[in-house]
Task: inverse folding
């Protein structure tokens, strides 16, 4: 991934070079020619990076090696320019402070010459390295590409809201699960129903539809939604359930106190608790949590979503509901909703529809994969572009119905480079980390990934 994230560093280098070249200190040092040559080389390479990234994403090993060499050279250049900028700033401050004696020392001809003799060879060496890299790109037929501005999104912590009219092909699943949840023949006081499926198949969406259904609202006195994920910390989950029950964040407290508070909220009430995205395979941890939740009135239900059958067997008391992929017509309805303006496709006999239905075969009825590909195709308006996508990009994805990661990577490959930096930066945080939007933006600004509004 690192080789694909060079556009922002390249842009930062060009901006730094422009600032230095305009500084009269560079003229005094006699470095203006070297800095201008370096600016020209980096600017030329920067304009080729989008094409290089696309060829790298397509699996060209020669381009990957070329990008690796470029990455090393770029960061060497960035380090060197930091040193030059720091020295320029130091001397500018001394000039402003009118420390005449120090200024005479720093700006004496001998001092200027020594600094030029020290820095000029280093700048020249970086420029030659980048010139060689630039010359090599001729072998890869890289072309200047305009910077794209479209944006994408990624899944964060789940919640219970969903627009039912935008969900396709889950009506029968919704009815079947609700029937099990409301079944009065279930003997357990609090029964647990797992929805099981691979990632991206729509477990969370189905749970959202059920959670917001009118029958559910009328049947249960209390409804709670908690995203679990990993790691499975019982105390944290209890805190989240308590927050969902009371609609306010609980004060920090010991486990016994939290459990007592939660029991007060659920005892005697028929409740529905959704535990979304459960990964825990430790029977002991699940038993510890289950004891806490057994105080609800008869008929209370826990609906959980999981990818693993092992997780379902450990925790479930009602037979698991195994969610399947969308049918062919349902898949096409979802794809055209994303790929065409207002969801209106051309005439059914058109070639683009034929290509689109062929593309769908690669998605195996997985809604998240269909949405990802549909969002990409929305920016491709001709049969030729759709066919090219199918033959050049989609054909390289492994045909594996249980793994949608290669398909989802397509959405990353189609992000503008500056957004790839922002996206990749988020991988430094643990799974299900709760971001503060303003703080994250400030971190992006500090890294130079985005510009402050004041700039």
Result:
């Amino acid at each position: 991934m690192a080789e694909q994230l060079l556009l922002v560093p390249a842009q930062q280098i060009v901006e730094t070079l422009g600032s230095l070249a305009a500084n009269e200190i560079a003229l005094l040092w006699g470095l203006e020619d070297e800095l201008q040559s370096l600016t020209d080389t980096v600017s030329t390479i920067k304009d080729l990076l989008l094409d290089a990234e696309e060829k790298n994403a397509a699996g060209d090993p020669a381009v990957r090696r070329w990008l690796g060499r470029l990455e090393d050279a770029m960061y060497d250049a960035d380090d060197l320019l930091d040193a030059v900028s720091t020295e320029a700033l130091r001397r500018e401050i001394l000039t402003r402070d009118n420390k005449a004696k120090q200024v005479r020392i720093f700006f004496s001809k001998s001092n200027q010459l020594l600094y030029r003799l020290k820095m000029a060879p280093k700048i020249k060496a970086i420029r030659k390295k980048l010139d060689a890299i630039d010359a090599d790109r001729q072998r890869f037929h890289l072309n200047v590409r305009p910077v794209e501005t479209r944006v994408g999104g990624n899944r964060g912590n789940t919640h219970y809201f969903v627009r039912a009219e935008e969900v396709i092909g889950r009506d029968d699943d919704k009815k079947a699960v609700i029937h099990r949840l409301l079944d009065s023949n279930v003997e357990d006081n609090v029964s647990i129903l797992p929805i099981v499926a691979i990632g991206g198949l729509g477990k969370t969406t189905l749970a959202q539809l059920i959670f917001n259904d009118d029958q559910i609202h009328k049947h249960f006195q209390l409804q709670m939604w908690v995203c679990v994920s990993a790691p499975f910390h019982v105390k944290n989950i209890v805190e989240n359930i308590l927050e969902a029950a009371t609609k306010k964040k609980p004060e920090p407290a010991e486990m016994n106190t939290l459990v007592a508070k939660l029991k007060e909220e659920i005892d005697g009430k028929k409740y529905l608790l959704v535990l979304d995205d459960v990964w825990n395979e430790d029977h002991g941890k699940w038993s510890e949590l289950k004891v806490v939740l057994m105080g609800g009135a008869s008929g209370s239900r826990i609906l959980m979503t999981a990818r693993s059958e092992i997780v379902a067997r450990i925790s479930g008391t009602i037979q698991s509901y195994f969610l399947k992929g969308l049918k062919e017509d349902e898949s096409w309805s979802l794809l055209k909703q994303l790929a065409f303006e207002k969801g209106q496709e051309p005439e059914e006999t058109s070639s683009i529809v034929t290509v689109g239905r062929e593309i769908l075969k690669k998605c195996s009825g997985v809604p998240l994969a269909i949405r990802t590909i549909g969002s990409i195709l929305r920016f491709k308006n001709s049969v030729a572009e759709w066919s090219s996508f199918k033959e050049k990009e989609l054909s390289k994805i492994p045909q594996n119905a249980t793994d949608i990661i290669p398909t989802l990577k397509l959405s990353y490959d189609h992000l503008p480079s500056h957004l790839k930096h922002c996206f990749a930066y988020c991988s430094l945080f643990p799974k299900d980390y709760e971001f503060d939007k303003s703080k994250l933006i400030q971190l992006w600004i500090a890294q130079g990934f985005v510009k402050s509004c004041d700039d």
